[in-house]
Amino acid sequence: MEAKVLNGKELATKIKGELKLEVEELKRKNINPGLAVIIVGNDPASRVYVNAKKKACEEIGIQSFEYALDENISEEELIDLIHKLNKDDKVNGILVQLPLPKHINEDRVIFAIDINKDVDAFHPVNVGRLMIGDPQFLPCTPAGIMELIKESGIDVEGKECVVVGRSNIVGKPMAMLLLSKNGTVTVCHSKTKDIEEVCKRADILVVAVGRPEMVKGSYIKPGAVVIDVGVNRLENKKLVGDVEFESAKTIASTITPVPGGVGPMTIAMLMKNTVKAAKLKSQAQ
Ligand code: NAP
Ligand code: LUD
Known about the structure:
Helix content: 40-55%
Order of helices and strands: EHEHEHEHHHEHEHEEEEHEH
Distance between the termini: 55 Å
Strand content: 15-25%
Oligomer: single chain
CATH superfamily of the largest domain: NAD(P)-binding Rossmann-like Domain
Radius of gyration: 19 Å
Structural class: alpha/beta
Number of strands: 11
Bound molecules: NADP nicotinamide-adenine-dinucleotide phosphate, ligand LUD
């Protein structure tokens, strides 16, 4: 039997539709959610993602403010801009698209963001709050994946969960969210021995390595749920994930496609966090 393909684009559209209604309601109470989007340099992939984020804001009725900065901007100038946005009442969320140019320290930049406007949930305070089980924002990609898993009808509790990749953006917070839902979680990385064998234990397998089609059908336990986070553009311009879709879909019970799987969900969750930030601010006043 072929796996069920989870449609992330469709679920993201549904979530954005709900948010649009919520934003209309908030506007009636004079709450106008706003997102500042900062992009540094000319990375074409970052440009695609930032445009998609701005478009989502437009669809939902969130005001977006773009800051497209020169590749050579100094770390200090970038942090000055963040300090200004921290004080700006029209801005509820601040997103600094990563990666940043090599001369800028990403940790220092993230640390400068007001924790109440940290809609990526990358600030150490928000990372820590997730770790102790009291999150104020959920990290967008892992939160989007949890929504997709929920949609698949699978209960995480007691399941063997394997996360391949341990980045601060995806792998580590993903492991934390699965753990918070009582999964038994294993995290693999480039030093893991026999990844294939570890992956084969998984009831729920999340792959975020950035290596085109690294995980083959032979890595997958029959009936597993497979979440492919990878977005890799090949030389022939084709977009593929970190999972070899064709071989995986004959073994998994459920699988996410690339494109149209996790990516659109990341954006929907960013919108959700921005609306939440606006609500939190209005409650604090
Ligand atoms: P990253 O920061 O480059 O981290 C990659 C992780 O994979 C690292 O932990 C690395 O291990 C591990 N790894 C690399 N090669 C490996 C191998 N051969 N075997 C086992 N582990 C290996 O990447 P990321 O930011 O997490 O992103 C991963 C992928 O997801 C990329 O394709 C990215 O474009 C995509 N992505 C998609 C979304 C979305 O919304 N769809 C969001 C974020 C990222 P070490 O730690 O040992 O180096
Ligand atoms: N930085 C992210 N850097 C990169 N794909 C994303 C992403 C949507 N601060 C910060 O947005 O959350 C972030 N916060 N990230 N990413 C990757 C990561 C960041 C990646 C893909 C997509 C967001 C997406 O919508 C489409 C899809 O998978 O269907 C395909 C888009 C295409 O290239 O055609």
